[in-house]
What does this fold into?
Amino acid sequence: MRWEQGRATIEEMLANGELQRVPASRQQADRLLAQARHHLASAASVRAEDPAGGYSLAYDAARKALAAVLVNQGLRPTNRGGHLATVEAVRAQLDPPMGSILRRFNRMRTRRNEAEYPPADTPELTPDDVQEDQGKAEQIVDLAVRLLDQMSPF
It folds into this structure.
């Protein structure tokens, strides 16, 4: 059975070079999810001493979880599409009903970029910031785990 929600958006992203087709791989999806879980554990262990590093790890956990959903379908973002294409492709297919969880990723992406390339007026990340958004990343990872068996190759 084909997954229909968001199909037009995915086709457009493929045509625009934001996504590319790859062999659908549950094994690669599981590998990305294992990495995401390790990143979450690492983020928790370093957030007090290195909030920016911990935040980056939490963000990467969420990004890899979304990438796992795509690779399980035989899709991968290109350099042109990048991290934004990852979330847009998953959101096109799952919002509704999962939009409230997926929208958190975009805010995390923005905060991670600010931490990587800080404007002078941006406050530094705190351990509390990392802990708060780590919880959001955990929800995204949990969502990806639940979806893998439900979404067919594109």
About this structure: The beta strands are 19-21, 75-77.
